[in-house]
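yo

u said u wanted the structure for the complex thing, so here. seqs first:
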Amino acid sequence: MSYEVNGVTIEHDEEGYITNLSEWSEDLAKVIAGVEEVEMGDEHWAVVNFLREYYEEYQIAPAVRVLIKAIKKKLGPEVGNNKYMYELFPYGPAKQACKIAGLPKPTGCV
Amino acid sequence: MSDDEVKKFLYVNRKAPYGTIYAQESLEVVLIGAAFDQDVAMAFLDDGVFQLTKGQDTKGTGLKNFSPTYRALGDYEVTKLYVEQESLDERGLTLDDLQDIQYEDEDDDYAEKPSIIVVSRDQMASLMAEQDVILSF
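structre next:
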């Protein structure tokens, strides 16, 4: 199972999370978003970039409530609330955004 | 949830971080368990104090360095990391050898406060006596 980006094959697991985290690129993010039927806008990128920074710093993908709290602090309550975040990422802001960000599934997600 | 449903959980860590899977599993369980609005604290004693040391480098072991994750615990409202003084002393360690782990206190204008609390062996014993649930790793 794999994604094709600019002629390069990138392996992913059965749920679509990439296997080798270092293979991520913005082009790959767009491909994964396409599979997920998510149209990437500025706010989507802000969430994806936040997740990547969080992972870089703490070596974990944050749980959804931690993500929403942090986005609220960073981008304000209009974006950082449950309803809006689920509009951005209908299959779960943590789960789906992490997949697009090339991170493992968040700890505690089933 | 009413207050009387909140239980005090203490996760006790006694092993060095990488020789076994206990330390990483404990941290993972704490992060998952933090979603249940309980009163969660962690204790570090014996070789468990090494879990919090600065400058861990796992290159060459093939293992993930999960030590930065302890600094995320504050985001999960796990803000009490009790470290036993005698265990530090016996290993020639001081508080300076441990990571600077902080949390933001929402009730105090998001002031950053230290999560690590050094306690004596006697204090650790009374702390354990106060808990509803103790999980040992």
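Chain B touches chain A through 14 residues (CB under 8 Å). The two ends of chain B are 28 Å apart (CA to CA).
cya
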